């Protein structure tokens, strides 16, 4: 505490005196003193008010830093990103019915909300989330590629390609949506459709992260 007050006095340009054993003129109490020259008013009340003000500002700053640190450290961290195939390359599908895609090549999964065994992201925190999906279409032979981003059983966004004269196509889509705890988000391949990926290139991906809690 004394060190802090000394720093505050120096910031004010004030005199600081400390008892010494030698090398200075004797004072009435039998000790000597070493002083930093004064440049502040000779008013004890003035100095006391200044010190109190600076200490108050210091305490407020420390409180603000503590609150900011608690906000950062206490905020849930949720983010994942994965590609469809973790080895090899080729088409996935077709299936007789709409089927959730299992993105097996996991780049990141902070918060462990994404399950690569099912392809499903489950919200563990209520909040606003960002999701993005990309799709690659290898048109040999000319295929139909349709994928839906699903929230529970509802379609949120779609990527659609029916083929053409070019050899391949790619597409992407993204949304920002609110989720409650327990909501599921996944990518669904439509019936009779196919989708392509190459594990070395990661052409077909699924990504999501928490923007903020609610």
TrEMBL record:
Question: InterPro entries this protein is in?
Answer: C1q_dom, Cerebellin_Synaptic_Org, Tumour_necrosis_fac-like_dom
Segment forming the signal sequence: 1-17
Instruction: Fetch the Pfam families from UniProt.
Output: C1q
Q: Which keywords does this Swiss-Prot/TrEMBL entry list?
A: Secreted, Signal
Give the record's GO CC terms. extracellular region
Where does the record place it? Secreted
This protein's superkingdom?
Eukaryota
| Ranges where the C1q domain occurs | 73-214
- Major site of localization recorded for this protein: secreted
- Which PANTHER family did the record assign? CEREBELLIN 13-RELATED, CEREBELLIN-RELATED
Name of the protein this chain belongs to: C1q domain-containing protein
Q: Which organism is it from?
A: Coilia grayii (Gray's grenadier anchovy)
Lineage at the top is: Eukaryota, Metazoa, Chordata, Craniata, Vertebrata
């Amino acid at each position: 505490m004394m060190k802090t007050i000394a720093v505050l006095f120096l910031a004010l340009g004030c005199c600081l005196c400390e008892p010494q054993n030698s090398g200075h003129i004797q004072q009435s109490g039998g000790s000597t003193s070493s002083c930093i020259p004064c440049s502040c008013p000779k008013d004890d009340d003035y100095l006391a008010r200044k010190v109190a003000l600076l200490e108050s500002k210091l305490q407020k700053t420390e409180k603000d830093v503590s609150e900011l640190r608690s906000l950062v450290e206490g905020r849930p961290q949720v983010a994942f990103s994965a590609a469809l195939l973790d080895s090899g390359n080729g088409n996935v599908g077709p299936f007789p019915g709409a089927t959730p895609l299992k993105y097996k090549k996991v780049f990141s999964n902070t918060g462990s909300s994404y399950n690569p065994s099912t392809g499903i992201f489950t919200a563990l925190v209520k909040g606003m989330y960002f999701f993005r999906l990309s799709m690659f279409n290898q048109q040999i032979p000319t295929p139909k590629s349709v994928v839906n981003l699903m929230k529970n059983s509802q379609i949120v966004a779609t990527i659609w390609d029916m083929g053409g004269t070019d050899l391949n196509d790619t597409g992407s889509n993204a949304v920002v949506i609110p989720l409650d705890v327990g909501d599921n988000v996944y990518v669904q391949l439509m019936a009779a459709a196919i989708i392509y990926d190459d594990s070395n290139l990661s052409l077909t991906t699924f990504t999501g992260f928490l923007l903020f809690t609610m």
